[in-house]
Amino acid sequence: MIDDRLKKDSRKKVFEQAKERLTSGFQALQFYPEGTRQKSVDSPKAYAEIKKPLLQFAYENDIPVYSVSVYGTKKVLSPRSCIIHPGQRLGIIVKDAKYPKDFSTADDFMRACWEEARKGYFELKRELQEKLT
Q1: Which of helix, strand or coil describes residue 64?
Q2: 72 and 87 in contact (C-beta within 8 Å)?
Q3: What is the pLDDT confidence band of residue 112, given thresholds at 50, 70 and 90?
Q4: Angle, CA 78 vertex, CA 13 and CA 92 arms, to 5°
Q5: In angstroms, rounded to a whole number, what is the distance separating the alpha carbons of residues 45 and 25?
Q6: Most exposed residue of 76, 81, 89, 111, measured as fewest CB within 10 angstroms of its CB?
Q7: CA–centroid distance for 14 within its chain
Q8: What backbone torsions phi and psi does residue 33 show, to the nearest 5 degrees?
Q9: Which pLDDT score is estimated for 75?
Q10: What is the pTM of this model?
Q11: Quick check: 85 and 77 in contact, CB under 8 A?
Q12: Of 48, 52, 47, 84, residue with least CA distance to 65
């Protein structure tokens, strides 16, 4: 089965739909640029490795970004069978908004948004591991 996320036309269509949603009535959009399918790595990607078009769009259109961090999903949901393993802990942090107008460049803005998400991931990891010991 070919994953639609690998097809350039599919990614472009989703990006255009997201832009439309954000600019027509300023509806909410949840954007998870990385980590939904990371199976071999135990930490979020470095800034240089992430896809940035929606973050760039947010900067260019003065749309605030709330960085979200998630930790523990690998132990909760089996990637192959999608079976939920009860009794596991996971955490989610939603950080305060970052506003494009507070940054002098798009790169500074995008980097700050991503680093906030990475920081939250490691905060959750530390907190959840402390509770297990």
Answers
A1: coil
A2: no
A3: very high
A4: 70
A5: 32
A6: 81
A7: 15
A8: -70, -25
A9: 80
A10: 0.76
A11: yes
A12: 52
